[in-house]
Amino acid sequence: MDALRDEEDAAAPLVAAPVASRRSPAADAHILSAAFLFVFSAYGAAQNLESTVNTKGDLGTVSLGILYTSFTLFSVVASPVVTRLGPKRALVVGSSGYVLFILANIVPTWYTMVPASLYLGFCASIIWVGQGTYLTSAALSHARDNNLPEGRTLGNFTGEFWGIMASTQAIGNLLSLALLRNGKDGGSVTGKNLLFVVFLGCMIVGIVLMCLLSEREEKEHNDSLHSSFGAMLKYIVAPLKDRRMLLIIPLMVYTGLQHAFVWAVFTKSIVTPVLGISGVGGAMAIYGAAGAVVVCIGYWIFDLWTLFSYTNSVNGSYCPGCSPILVASFLQSNGWSTWRSGSATHRRVMGCG
Protein backbone atom coordinates (compact mmCIF):
# COMPACT_ATOMS: atom_id res chain seq x y z
CA MET A 1 0.00 0.00 0.00
CA ASP A 2 2.75 2.44 0.93
CA ALA A 3 4.71 1.52 -2.20
CA LEU A 4 1.65 2.21 -4.35
CA ARG A 5 1.13 5.58 -2.66
CA ASP A 6 4.78 6.47 -3.24
CA GLU A 7 4.44 5.63 -6.94
CA GLU A 8 1.33 7.85 -7.22
CA ASP A 9 3.08 10.72 -5.46
CA ALA A 10 6.06 10.42 -7.79
CA ALA A 11 3.78 10.43 -10.83
CA ALA A 12 1.84 13.49 -9.65
CA PRO A 13 3.05 16.82 -11.09
CA LEU A 14 4.77 19.20 -8.69
CA VAL A 15 2.80 22.17 -10.08
CA ALA A 16 -0.83 21.88 -11.08
CA ALA A 17 -1.35 22.26 -14.79
CA PRO A 18 -3.16 25.43 -15.85
CA VAL A 19 -6.83 25.07 -16.69
CA ALA A 20 -7.06 24.51 -20.43
CA SER A 21 -10.27 26.49 -20.76
CA ARG A 22 -8.81 29.67 -19.26
CA ARG A 23 -9.39 32.47 -21.74
CA SER A 24 -6.44 34.64 -22.73
CA PRO A 25 -6.38 38.27 -21.53
CA ALA A 26 -6.35 39.41 -25.16
CA ALA A 27 -9.58 37.52 -25.83
CA ASP A 28 -11.15 39.14 -22.77
CA ALA A 29 -10.14 42.55 -24.11
CA HIS A 30 -11.80 41.73 -27.44
CA ILE A 31 -14.99 40.63 -25.68
CA LEU A 32 -15.00 43.74 -23.49
CA SER A 33 -14.61 45.98 -26.54
CA ALA A 34 -17.41 44.15 -28.37
CA ALA A 35 -19.70 44.45 -25.34
CA PHE A 36 -19.16 48.19 -25.13
CA LEU A 37 -19.69 48.44 -28.89
CA PHE A 38 -23.22 47.06 -28.54
CA VAL A 39 -24.12 48.96 -25.38
CA PHE A 40 -22.79 52.36 -26.42
CA SER A 41 -23.84 52.19 -30.07
CA ALA A 42 -27.37 52.15 -28.64
CA TYR A 43 -26.82 54.59 -25.79
CA GLY A 44 -24.82 57.14 -27.80
CA ALA A 45 -27.48 57.39 -30.49
CA ALA A 46 -30.27 57.58 -27.89
CA GLN A 47 -28.41 60.34 -26.07
CA ASN A 48 -28.07 62.36 -29.27
CA LEU A 49 -31.85 62.22 -29.73
CA GLU A 50 -32.85 63.24 -26.20
CA SER A 51 -33.13 66.98 -26.82
CA THR A 52 -35.02 66.49 -30.11
CA VAL A 53 -37.36 63.57 -29.33
CA ASN A 54 -38.31 64.33 -25.72
CA THR A 55 -39.03 68.03 -26.13
CA LYS A 56 -42.07 68.42 -23.85
CA GLY A 57 -40.90 70.54 -20.94
CA ASP A 58 -37.33 69.99 -22.16
CA LEU A 59 -37.58 66.52 -20.65
CA GLY A 60 -34.71 65.13 -22.70
CA THR A 61 -32.30 67.96 -21.92
CA VAL A 62 -33.19 68.00 -18.21
CA SER A 63 -32.76 64.22 -18.06
CA LEU A 64 -29.25 64.50 -19.48
CA GLY A 65 -28.45 67.21 -16.94
CA ILE A 66 -29.67 65.00 -14.09
CA LEU A 67 -27.79 62.03 -15.49
CA TYR A 68 -24.42 63.75 -15.66
CA THR A 69 -24.86 65.51 -12.33
CA SER A 70 -25.52 62.09 -10.80
CA PHE A 71 -22.55 60.68 -12.71
CA THR A 72 -20.29 63.38 -11.26
CA LEU A 73 -21.43 62.87 -7.67
CA PHE A 74 -21.30 59.09 -7.71
CA SER A 75 -17.87 59.08 -9.37
CA VAL A 76 -16.44 60.15 -6.01
CA VAL A 77 -17.27 56.75 -4.49
CA ALA A 78 -17.16 54.63 -7.66
CA SER A 79 -13.68 53.23 -7.08
CA PRO A 80 -14.44 51.73 -3.63
CA VAL A 81 -17.67 50.28 -5.03
CA VAL A 82 -15.83 48.61 -7.90
CA THR A 83 -13.22 47.31 -5.46
CA ARG A 84 -15.97 45.64 -3.44
CA LEU A 85 -17.88 44.27 -6.43
CA GLY A 86 -14.93 43.33 -8.59
CA PRO A 87 -14.54 44.73 -12.12
CA LYS A 88 -16.61 42.10 -13.92
CA ARG A 89 -19.63 42.43 -11.63
CA ALA A 90 -19.28 46.21 -11.75
CA LEU A 91 -19.49 46.06 -15.54
CA VAL A 92 -22.63 43.90 -15.49
CA VAL A 93 -24.35 45.99 -12.79
CA GLY A 94 -23.31 49.21 -14.51
CA SER A 95 -24.81 48.14 -17.82
CA SER A 96 -28.21 47.67 -16.17
CA GLY A 97 -28.59 51.44 -15.88
CA TYR A 98 -28.29 51.85 -19.64
CA VAL A 99 -31.01 49.24 -20.20
CA LEU A 100 -33.33 51.05 -17.76
CA PHE A 101 -32.64 54.38 -19.50
CA ILE A 102 -33.64 52.94 -22.89
CA LEU A 103 -36.80 51.42 -21.39
CA ALA A 104 -37.69 54.82 -19.91
CA ASN A 105 -37.39 56.39 -23.36
CA ILE A 106 -40.03 54.04 -24.72
CA VAL A 107 -42.50 55.61 -22.26
CA PRO A 108 -40.89 59.03 -21.61
CA THR A 109 -42.43 60.85 -18.64
CA TRP A 110 -40.98 62.72 -15.70
CA TYR A 111 -41.76 59.66 -13.53
CA THR A 112 -39.71 57.33 -15.75
CA MET A 113 -36.91 59.52 -17.11
CA VAL A 114 -35.79 61.22 -13.89
CA PRO A 115 -35.32 58.02 -11.79
CA ALA A 116 -33.72 56.27 -14.77
CA SER A 117 -31.29 59.17 -15.26
CA LEU A 118 -30.35 59.21 -11.56
CA TYR A 119 -29.70 55.47 -11.57
CA LEU A 120 -27.78 55.66 -14.83
CA GLY A 121 -25.48 58.27 -13.30
CA PHE A 122 -24.53 55.77 -10.60
CA CYS A 123 -24.17 52.93 -13.12
CA ALA A 124 -22.05 55.04 -15.46
CA SER A 125 -19.63 55.84 -12.64
CA ILE A 126 -19.00 52.20 -11.80
CA ILE A 127 -19.02 50.86 -15.36
CA TRP A 128 -16.25 53.24 -16.43
CA VAL A 129 -14.09 52.60 -13.38
CA GLY A 130 -14.72 48.89 -13.86
CA GLN A 131 -13.78 49.15 -17.52
CA GLY A 132 -10.50 50.89 -16.77
CA THR A 133 -9.66 48.41 -14.01
CA TYR A 134 -10.55 45.35 -16.08
CA LEU A 135 -8.77 46.48 -19.24
CA THR A 136 -5.62 47.45 -17.34
CA SER A 137 -5.58 44.11 -15.51
CA ALA A 138 -6.03 42.20 -18.77
CA ALA A 139 -3.26 44.18 -20.48
CA LEU A 140 -0.77 43.64 -17.66
CA SER A 141 -1.61 39.93 -17.49
CA HIS A 142 -1.08 39.62 -21.23
CA ALA A 143 2.26 41.43 -20.96
CA ARG A 144 3.46 39.15 -18.15
CA ASP A 145 2.29 35.96 -19.89
CA ASN A 146 4.05 36.85 -23.14
CA ASN A 147 7.09 38.77 -21.80
CA LEU A 148 5.99 41.97 -23.51
CA PRO A 149 6.59 45.60 -22.41
CA GLU A 150 3.75 46.55 -20.10
CA GLY A 151 3.48 50.12 -21.39
CA ARG A 152 3.14 49.17 -25.04
CA THR A 153 0.71 46.35 -24.25
CA LEU A 154 -1.47 48.68 -22.20
CA GLY A 155 -1.37 51.19 -25.04
CA ASN A 156 -2.38 48.54 -27.58
CA PHE A 157 -5.28 47.27 -25.48
CA THR A 158 -6.48 50.78 -24.72
CA GLY A 159 -6.12 51.84 -28.34
CA GLU A 160 -8.23 48.91 -29.53
CA PHE A 161 -10.92 49.63 -26.97
CA TRP A 162 -11.21 53.35 -27.68
CA GLY A 163 -10.96 52.87 -31.42
CA ILE A 164 -14.00 50.59 -31.22
CA MET A 165 -15.73 52.94 -28.77
CA ALA A 166 -15.28 55.85 -31.17
CA SER A 167 -17.03 53.85 -33.89
CA THR A 168 -20.16 53.52 -31.73
CA GLN A 169 -21.26 57.02 -32.68
CA ALA A 170 -21.22 56.08 -36.35
CA ILE A 171 -22.93 52.68 -35.94
CA GLY A 172 -25.66 53.75 -33.54
CA ASN A 173 -26.54 56.88 -35.43
CA LEU A 174 -26.77 54.98 -38.70
CA LEU A 175 -29.51 52.92 -37.01
CA SER A 176 -31.29 56.17 -36.18
CA LEU A 177 -30.93 57.35 -39.75
CA ALA A 178 -32.37 54.08 -41.07
CA LEU A 179 -35.35 53.77 -38.72
CA LEU A 180 -36.50 57.32 -37.98
CA ARG A 181 -38.69 59.26 -40.38
CA ASN A 182 -39.84 62.86 -40.15
CA GLY A 183 -43.57 63.31 -39.63
CA LYS A 184 -45.77 65.13 -42.14
CA ASP A 185 -45.85 68.25 -40.02
CA GLY A 186 -42.06 68.37 -39.82
CA GLY A 187 -42.10 68.56 -36.05
CA SER A 188 -42.79 64.92 -35.22
CA VAL A 189 -41.03 61.66 -35.92
CA THR A 190 -42.13 58.10 -36.65
CA GLY A 191 -40.30 54.86 -35.84
CA LYS A 192 -39.06 56.06 -32.43
CA ASN A 193 -40.38 53.12 -30.41
CA LEU A 194 -39.05 50.63 -32.95
CA LEU A 195 -35.65 52.31 -32.78
CA PHE A 196 -35.51 52.11 -28.98
CA VAL A 197 -36.56 48.46 -29.05
CA VAL A 198 -33.62 47.80 -31.40
CA PHE A 199 -31.39 49.73 -29.00
CA LEU A 200 -32.67 47.56 -26.16
CA GLY A 201 -31.75 44.43 -28.10
CA CYS A 202 -28.24 45.76 -28.70
CA MET A 203 -27.78 46.37 -24.99
CA ILE A 204 -28.93 42.88 -24.06
CA VAL A 205 -26.29 41.45 -26.41
CA GLY A 206 -23.68 43.67 -24.74
CA ILE A 207 -24.67 42.49 -21.25
CA VAL A 208 -24.49 38.84 -22.33
CA LEU A 209 -20.96 39.44 -23.62
CA MET A 210 -19.97 41.06 -20.30
CA CYS A 211 -21.24 37.98 -18.47
CA LEU A 212 -18.85 35.89 -20.58
CA LEU A 213 -15.79 37.79 -19.35
CA SER A 214 -13.28 36.02 -17.13
CA GLU A 215 -13.08 37.01 -13.47
CA ARG A 216 -10.26 39.44 -12.78
CA GLU A 217 -10.75 40.30 -9.14
CA GLU A 218 -7.82 41.35 -7.00
CA LYS A 219 -9.24 40.04 -3.75
CA GLU A 220 -6.02 40.47 -1.85
CA HIS A 221 -6.69 44.21 -1.76
CA ASN A 222 -10.35 44.08 -0.79
CA ASP A 223 -9.97 43.33 2.90
CA SER A 224 -7.68 46.14 3.95
CA LEU A 225 -8.17 48.91 1.40
CA HIS A 226 -11.20 50.55 2.99
CA SER A 227 -11.21 49.27 6.57
CA SER A 228 -12.78 52.51 7.80
CA PHE A 229 -14.62 55.53 6.46
CA GLY A 230 -11.54 57.67 7.08
CA ALA A 231 -9.37 55.31 5.04
CA MET A 232 -11.89 55.37 2.19
CA LEU A 233 -12.07 59.18 2.30
CA LYS A 234 -8.28 59.42 2.23
CA TYR A 235 -8.23 57.07 -0.76
CA ILE A 236 -10.76 59.24 -2.60
CA VAL A 237 -9.00 62.55 -1.89
CA ALA A 238 -5.48 61.27 -2.61
CA PRO A 239 -5.58 61.91 -6.41
CA LEU A 240 -6.37 65.60 -5.78
CA LYS A 241 -2.95 65.96 -4.16
CA ASP A 242 -1.28 64.99 -7.42
CA ARG A 243 -0.39 68.14 -9.37
CA ARG A 244 -0.75 66.30 -12.67
CA MET A 245 -4.34 65.36 -11.86
CA LEU A 246 -5.13 68.98 -11.02
CA LEU A 247 -3.65 70.14 -14.32
CA ILE A 248 -5.96 67.92 -16.38
CA ILE A 249 -9.12 69.10 -14.60
CA PRO A 250 -9.54 72.04 -17.06
CA LEU A 251 -9.34 69.54 -19.93
CA MET A 252 -12.07 67.46 -18.30
CA VAL A 253 -14.24 70.56 -17.88
CA TYR A 254 -13.70 71.52 -21.52
CA THR A 255 -14.61 67.98 -22.65
CA GLY A 256 -17.81 68.11 -20.62
CA LEU A 257 -18.82 71.46 -22.09
CA GLN A 258 -18.03 70.29 -25.60
CA HIS A 259 -20.12 67.15 -25.16
CA ALA A 260 -23.01 69.14 -23.70
CA PHE A 261 -22.98 71.40 -26.75
CA VAL A 262 -22.85 68.51 -29.25
CA TRP A 263 -25.43 66.26 -27.55
CA ALA A 264 -28.00 68.92 -26.63
CA VAL A 265 -27.52 72.20 -28.51
CA PHE A 266 -25.99 71.11 -31.82
CA THR A 267 -28.55 68.36 -32.47
CA LYS A 268 -31.57 70.43 -31.42
CA SER A 269 -30.75 73.93 -32.66
CA ILE A 270 -28.54 73.30 -35.69
CA VAL A 271 -29.19 69.85 -37.17
CA THR A 272 -32.94 69.48 -36.58
CA PRO A 273 -34.05 72.80 -38.19
CA VAL A 274 -32.14 71.88 -41.36
CA LEU A 275 -32.48 68.10 -41.66
CA GLY A 276 -35.33 67.27 -39.32
CA ILE A 277 -35.19 64.84 -36.42
CA SER A 278 -34.42 61.90 -38.69
CA GLY A 279 -31.34 63.76 -39.96
CA VAL A 280 -29.77 63.84 -36.49
CA GLY A 281 -28.59 60.27 -36.95
CA GLY A 282 -26.84 60.99 -40.24
CA ALA A 283 -25.12 64.14 -38.96
CA MET A 284 -23.91 62.45 -35.79
CA ALA A 285 -22.78 59.37 -37.73
CA ILE A 286 -20.41 61.61 -39.70
CA TYR A 287 -19.30 63.19 -36.43
CA GLY A 288 -18.63 59.74 -34.96
CA ALA A 289 -16.73 58.49 -38.01
CA ALA A 290 -14.46 61.52 -37.92
CA GLY A 291 -13.89 60.92 -34.19
CA ALA A 292 -12.96 57.29 -34.81
CA VAL A 293 -10.33 58.28 -37.36
CA VAL A 294 -8.83 60.88 -35.02
CA VAL A 295 -8.74 58.41 -32.11
CA CYS A 296 -6.89 55.83 -34.21
CA ILE A 297 -4.35 58.44 -35.27
CA GLY A 298 -3.99 59.66 -31.69
CA TYR A 299 -3.28 56.20 -30.32
CA TRP A 300 -0.84 55.47 -33.11
CA ILE A 301 1.06 58.59 -32.02
CA PHE A 302 0.72 57.49 -28.38
CA ASP A 303 2.17 54.07 -29.21
CA LEU A 304 5.15 55.64 -30.97
CA TRP A 305 5.67 57.97 -28.02
CA THR A 306 5.61 55.02 -25.62
CA LEU A 307 8.14 53.10 -27.73
CA PHE A 308 10.40 56.17 -27.78
CA SER A 309 10.17 56.55 -24.01
CA TYR A 310 11.10 52.91 -23.38
CA THR A 311 14.03 53.18 -25.71
CA ASN A 312 15.45 56.29 -24.05
CA SER A 313 14.38 56.44 -20.41
CA VAL A 314 12.70 53.29 -19.11
CA ASN A 315 13.45 54.05 -15.48
CA GLY A 316 13.35 57.84 -15.60
CA SER A 317 10.99 60.06 -13.62
CA TYR A 318 9.57 61.72 -16.72
CA CYS A 319 6.05 60.63 -17.57
CA PRO A 320 5.66 60.37 -21.39
CA GLY A 321 1.92 59.78 -21.05
CA CYS A 322 1.62 63.23 -19.47
CA SER A 323 2.61 65.12 -22.61
CA PRO A 324 0.02 67.93 -22.83
CA ILE A 325 -0.85 67.27 -26.47
CA LEU A 326 -1.29 63.54 -25.91
CA VAL A 327 -3.30 64.03 -22.74
CA ALA A 328 -5.58 66.50 -24.54
CA SER A 329 -6.12 64.04 -27.38
CA PHE A 330 -6.69 61.22 -24.91
CA LEU A 331 -9.27 63.14 -22.90
CA GLN A 332 -11.01 64.51 -25.98
CA SER A 333 -11.58 60.94 -27.19
CA ASN A 334 -13.46 60.12 -23.96
CA GLY A 335 -10.41 58.40 -22.49
CA TRP A 336 -10.52 60.42 -19.28
CA SER A 337 -12.54 57.71 -17.54
CA THR A 338 -9.86 55.14 -18.23
CA TRP A 339 -7.18 57.64 -17.21
CA ARG A 340 -8.98 58.35 -13.95
CA SER A 341 -9.68 54.73 -13.03
CA GLY A 342 -6.29 53.40 -14.04
CA SER A 343 -4.06 56.40 -13.32
CA ALA A 344 -2.05 54.75 -10.55
CA THR A 345 -1.32 51.68 -12.65
CA HIS A 346 -0.61 53.85 -15.68
CA ARG A 347 1.99 55.90 -13.80
CA ARG A 348 3.67 52.75 -12.50
CA VAL A 349 3.77 51.14 -15.93
CA MET A 350 4.98 54.27 -17.68
CA GLY A 351 7.78 54.84 -15.18
CA CYS A 352 6.46 58.07 -13.67
CA GLY A 353 8.30 59.19 -10.56
UniProtKB/TrEMBL annotation:
Subcellular locations according to the entry: Membrane
InterPro entries in the record: Ion_channel_UNC-93, MFS_trans_sf, UNC-93_regulatory
SUPFAM superfamilies: MFS general substrate transporter (SSF103473)
Keyword Transmembrane annotated: yes
TM annotation in the entry: 29-46, 66-83, 90-111, 117-140, 161-181, 193-213, 245-266, 278-302
Topology of this chain in the membrane: Multi-pass membrane protein
Main location: membrane
UniProt keywords, alphabetically: Membrane, Transmembrane, Transmembrane helix
Gene Ontology cellular component terms for the protein in this record: membrane
Top-level taxonomic group: Eukaryota
Homology family: Belongs to the unc-93 family.
Stored PANTHER family: MAJOR FACILITATOR SUPERFAMILY (MFS) PROFILE DOMAIN-CONTAINING PROTEIN, UNC-93 RELATED
Protein name (record): UNC93-like protein 3
